[in-house]
Amino acid sequence: MRDQRKIADEADVIICGYAIQRCDDGIRVVNNNETEGHVAVFKENGTLVETNMDDIETGIARDYMLSALKYMEEDYA
After folding, report:
1. Where are the domains of the chain?
2. pTM over 0.85
3. Torsion angle, CA of 22/68/61/35, rounded to 10 degrees?
4. Cα–Cα distance between 58 and 62 in angstroms, integer?
5. What is the distance between the alpha carbons of residues 45 and 33, in angstroms, rounded to a whole number?
6. Phi/psi at 71 (nearest 5 deg)?
7. Which residues neighbour 51 within 8 Å (Cβ) at sequence distance 6 or greater?
8. pLDDT digits (tens, 9 = 90+) for 1-54
């Protein structure tokens, strides 16, 4: 089982249990409500790179990621 606390602590933003964090491949979105490790990686424009989520959850994760981008900017005060 993955360490949900560590994932939450390392996240840049958390929205409704989805931990959103920049990574080498783009932006990783982890559904921290699921113990099975539902993860998606997106480019900043919302293009899906890879996932193990179903289509509905991928759409939800994408929407949360796009909403979180403004809070992930370095100049955000």
Report:
1. 4-72
2. yes
3. 70
4. 6
5. 25
6. -85, -10
7. 39, 40, 41, 58, 61
8. 578 889 999 999 999 999 999 999 999 999 998 878 799 999 999 999 999 999
